Amino acid sequence: MRKGTFFCIDAHTCGNPVRLVTSGHPDLVGNNMSEKRQDFLANHYWILESLMFEPRGHDMMSGSFLYPPCSDNADAAILFIETSGCLPMCGHGTIGTVTAALESGLLHAKTPGQLILDVPAGQIRVEYEQRDGKVEWVKIYNIASYLAHQDIQINVPGIGELKVDISYGGNYYIIVEPQENYPGLENWSAAQVLQFSPIIRDIINDTVECVHPDDPSVCGASHLLWTGKPQKPGSDGANAVFYGDKAIDRSPCGTGTSARMAQLYARGELSVGQEFTHESIIGSQFVGKVEAATEVAGQPAMMPSIKGWAKVFGKNCITVDDDDPYAFGFQV
Ligand code: PYC
């Protein structure tokens, strides 16, 4: 039976949507969130299609379900859903989910101001400040991030030769920096990001293997991160992250910022203790930091944190019934 009623809290993190689905959860099979993510992808994907795509969602739509923790030390678990699928980790999604869940009383921290959350990519720690019921900011201590591939030469129809890196921050990011055939984000339009990103992603995924050494279900370069000169005071870098088929993240992207810091750290351009304020395509900012050095499968890696804010703006009740020809969404 593919029908249901889903209560949702709608929020945005620094401009990008987060739809926290508070009822209608499918029971998921698995010992951890990675296995539960696989179960959702195999058996419950219609829920994502219904709640993320038009007419109930839109190109940029992104959301989550809260689940009971899988580990003894955790407060809760999150399953991320968005138009690009079920992400192993989502930074803006975590900030929005934590804000909406705390403000609505759905989530109670064992230690006020701190949470431990199981996510498909592993376990993350969160700090937050709540005043008069409102969550002021959320800081995520993200999973280990690392530069996976460096200086990959590709030939992109309509652009020409490009050199890109691939870095992991909870998802694998293809990072495009200013160079001869790419003048930087400030000289590039959103239409160009949307036109060329899927082409580059296909070229990379046909030729370069990205598989997480600790969890092979986390694989494939799913996102592109285009860099450029920041426009806002206090920013150290600017980016536009492309995901799904037509989305550009309105937030500075938590996993993208982690991946970018891991790249800069690997090149010696950021060191432990250093902050990195990242600006989005609409000028909103996350404050990133290199918290510590670590290793992933014996290779150098770093532990990033990302701090940002979210605002709750509404509640809704979405019904999905298979008598509706567009119950499971569409794309144009
Ligand atoms: O904030 O990690 C993030 C994210 C991933 C895709 C869109 N936002």
Total number of helices: 5
Give the C-level CATH assignment of the largest domain. Answer: Alpha Beta
Major pleated sheet: 17 strands, mixed
CATH A-level architecture of the largest domain? Roll
Distance between the termini: 26 Å
Describe the structure concisely for a colleague.
The protein has five helices and 19 strands. The chain has 332 residues and is α+β, with helices and mostly antiparallel strands. The protein folds into two domains: 3-139 and 312-321, Diaminopimelate Epimerase, Chain A, domain 1 (Roll); 145-297, Roll (Diaminopimelate Epimerase, Chain A, domain 1).
Walkthrough of the structure:
It is a single chain. 19% of the residues lie in helices and 42% in strands. The chain has a 17-stranded mixed beta sheet that branches. A two-stranded antiparallel sheet has the order 11-12. With 332 residues, it is α+β, with helices and mostly antiparallel strands. The longest helix has 18 residues. It binds pyrrole-2-carboxylate.
Question: Secondary-structure map with pairings?
Answer:
Elements: E1 4-13, E2 16-21, H1 33-43, H2 45-52, E3 62-67, E4 76-82, H3 91-103, E5 114-119, E6 122-131, E7 134-141, E8 146-156, E9 160-168, E10 172-176, H4 190-207, E11 211-212, E12 215-219, E13 221-228, E14 237-243, E15 247-248, H5 254-266, E16 275-279, E17 285-296, E18 299-308, E19 310-320
The site of pyrrole-2-carboxylate has 12 residues, from helix 3 and helix 5.
Family: Belongs to the proline racemase family.
Protein name: Proline racemase
Pfam families: Pro_racemase (PF05544)
